[in-house]
Prior knowledge:
Keywords: ATP-binding, Cell membrane, Membrane, Nucleotide-binding, Transport. The chain is of the alpha/beta class.
Amino acid sequence: xxxxxxxxxxxxxxxxxxxxxxxxxxxxxxxxxxxxxxxxxxxxxxxxxxxxxxxxxxxxxxxxxxxxxxxxxxxxxxxxxxxxxxxxxxxxxxxxxxxxxxxxxxxxxxxxxxxxxxxxxxxxxxxxxxxxxxxxxxxxxxxxxxxxxxxxxxxxxxxxxxxxxxxxxxxxxxxxxxxxxxxxxxxxxxxxxxxxxxxxxxxxxxxxxxxxxxxxxxxxxxxxxxxxxxxxxxxxxxxxxxxx
Length: 244
Ligand code: ADP
C-alpha cells in the first residue's frame, strides 16, 4: 500500500535521509525506533510532504510522487490527503473548541457541510473517549486529552495511513497510557500506521514490523520479537542496550 524507493533528504549540506526503501502492506503497523537525530521525524514528514524529499519516489495506494522531477502543488495537496499526521506537540488551534478543531479540515479542505463535519467530529471524539469534552478549549484539556483531539482531527480527514510523530513524548507519564490505548484500538481496527516512538513496550505490543534507523539509514527491520530479542546489527544491539 505504501512504497518508498530511494528516498533521500538534504538540509543544505547535511544529508539526513540516505536511500530509504520501505514497503508497507495495508493494515500493518510499522514502528520506527532509533537514536535522536537519526532521521525518524524527517522520514515521517517526507511521507506527509511537510518536507520535500531531495530524491526518490513515494507511492501510497495508486498515487505516486517522483521527486527526481518537479512535483506540482496540486499533486502534493492530493497526496497529503492520503495521510493523517499526529504531532508530538498536538498543534491544536487554541481559539477553537475540541469539536471545532476536528471539523476544521473536513470543512476547509474536503468542503464538507458544517452539519456533516460536526456529526462525524462528534463520533470521532466519542471514539477517542472525549464525548463529554467536545466544547472544551485546548487549555481546558490535559495533554493526553489534547493529543486524543489531535488523533480525532487526523482521523476526520479519512486518511489511508496514520502517521504518529512521537505522540506521547510531550506527555506526563500518567497520561501516556490513555493515548497509547487509542492508538492500539486503531491498530485493532486495521488502520495502516507508521509510528515513531520511544515507548518500547508499546512498540513490542502494537508493531507488525519494527524499523531501526541510525544516521539517516534504515539499519534493520523485522518483527518485534526479532528486533527486540535478537537484533542482528551491532548498532541496533547497542541502541537497545542503552535504553532498556
Ligand atoms: P529524529 O526524529 O530521529 O530525532 P530528525 O529527523 O528530527 O531525527 O532529524 C535528523 C537530522 O536532521 C538532525 O540532525 C536534525 O538536526 C536535522 N534536521 C531536521 N530538520 C531540519 C531542518 N528543518 N533544517 C535543518 N536540519 C534539520
